[in-house]
Specification:
Blueprint (H helix, E strand, L loop, with lengths): L5 H6 L8 E3 L1 H7 L2 E6 L9 H14 L4 E5 L3 H12 L4 E5 L5 H9 L3 E4 L4 H11 L5 E4 L5 H17 L6 E5 L4 H12 L7 E6 L4 H8 L22 H9 L2 E6 L1 H15 L5 H11 L2 H7 L8 E6 L7 H6 L6 E2 L5 E2 L15
Parallel strand pairs: 2-10, 3-4, 3-6, 4-5, 7-8, 7-10, 8-9
Antiparallel strand pairs: 1-2, 11-12
Helix pairs in contact: 3-4, 3-7, 4-5, 7-8, 11-12
Length: 350
């Protein structure tokens, strides 16, 4: 997409409309219709451009001159892409766990990259010190009303694309920005009665811990191989929305998330990263079926899976992880593989 003109900023969103397709393989294997909202087809590779693009466009109209964002990768790429289209300089702060190829993708969007901290929370603290100028927009990829409003568009689009409302909606959770937008969007289109299954990986489960402890909780570390999967603490808004709406928090293992990515690649010839694999695991690993058996979900005639995407994935990494003996160790390196893969599993949040 080319840079936006002044009139475009008022009238034209930065994100693109993505398809919601009926998955024949998943529908056949589950026994109900499975629709996939393909946010992996966004130009920067994930849903994040919806919220971040909306935030940046509004900020420009208020006189913003510069963008600063802390990110595990995908949020930063979306911020850099939005800033380029809006003719703004951008500085993206990444933790040390972000792969070099993701940092290069961000530089390709003409942004400055700084590396600070071992997790997103540490990068974020540094980014906030860079954004003290009143003309500078600080982008928190999860925690801002304009972010959530932008993500609402995902559901508004999908309502127009599906023949009828789904019986359940599934989305991955990191810091909670996507889930906020999904829930708000569902309320906006009259889907507020539909349950949402919020998927996280074990060891990167700040929302699940918060809901179990009935307070916004901070986990001590990301112990999943998904070292940048989400924040240590979910945003307060997502915790509040989960308490007021029918949200079922579920966990999958790293292995289930990776296997879901591999099966999705086989079924639909598309690559997504394991943070997205968490939501796909709800159907590929039978988690929705288990919830029905446990009485937490009723009859499912159709399900909507938000394929949130992610650019921190390569064909080599996915191919090498296909062998059952290849397991990712906590450093994010493929163990027992003849060729070590420097693929740290990244996230969509932050």
């Amino acid at each position: 997409m080319d840079a936006l003109t002044h009139d475009d900023i008022h009238q034209r969103p930065i994100y693109i409309e993505t398809p919601a397709i009926l998955s024949t393989p998943l529908s056949n294997s589950t026994g109900f219709k499975v629709y996939l909202k393909l946010e992996n087809l966004q130009v920067p590779g994930s849903f994040k451009i919806r919220g971040i693009g909306n935030l940046c466009q509004k900020a420009v109209l208020k006189g913003c001159k510069r963008v600063v964002c802390a990110s595990g990768g995908n949020g930063g790429l979306a911020a850099a892409y939005a800033a380029r289209l809006l003719n703004l300089p951008a500085t993206i702060v990444l933790p040390t766990t972000t792969p070099d190829f993701m940092a290069q993708k961000i530089r390709d969007q003409e942004a400055t990259v700084e590396v600070q901290g071992s997790v997103w929370d540490e990068s974020n603290q540094y980014a906030m010190t860079l954004a003290k100028d009143p003309e500078c927009l600080y982008v928190n990829p999860c925690d801002h009303p304009d972010i959530w409003e932008g993500h609402e568009s995902l559901i508004v689009e999908t309502k127009q694309q599906l023949p009828c409302p789904p019986d359940v909606v599934v989305a991955s959770v990191g810091g909670g920005g996507l889930l906020c937008g999904v829930i708000q969007g569902m309320q906006r289109v009259g889907w507020g009665h539909i349950p949402v299954v919020a998927m996280e990986t074990e060891g990167a489960d700040c929302l699940n811990v918060s809901l179990r402890e009935n307070k916004v909780a901070t986990i001590p570390a990301i112990t999943s191989v998904a070292k940048c999967l989400g924040a240590l603490t979910p945003c307060t808004k997502v915790f509040e929305l989960c308490q007021k709406n029918k949200v079922i928090s579920k966990l999958c293992t790293d292995k289930q998330a990776i296997n879901a990515c591999l099966k999705f690649a086989d079924d639909h010839r598309q690559l997504v990263e394991p943070a997205c694999g968490a939501s796909l695991a709800a159907v590929y690993s039978g988690i929705l079926k288990d919830l029905q058996t446990q009485g937490q979900l009723g009859e499912i005639k159709s399900a909507l899976i938000v394929v949130c995407g992610g650019s921190a994935v390569t064909l080599d990494a996915l191919t090498c992880s296909r062998a059952p003996e290849n397991v990712l160790n906590p450093a994010g390196i493929m163990a027992e593989s003849p060729t070590p893969i420097k693929w740290r599993i990244q996230t969509l949040s932050p």
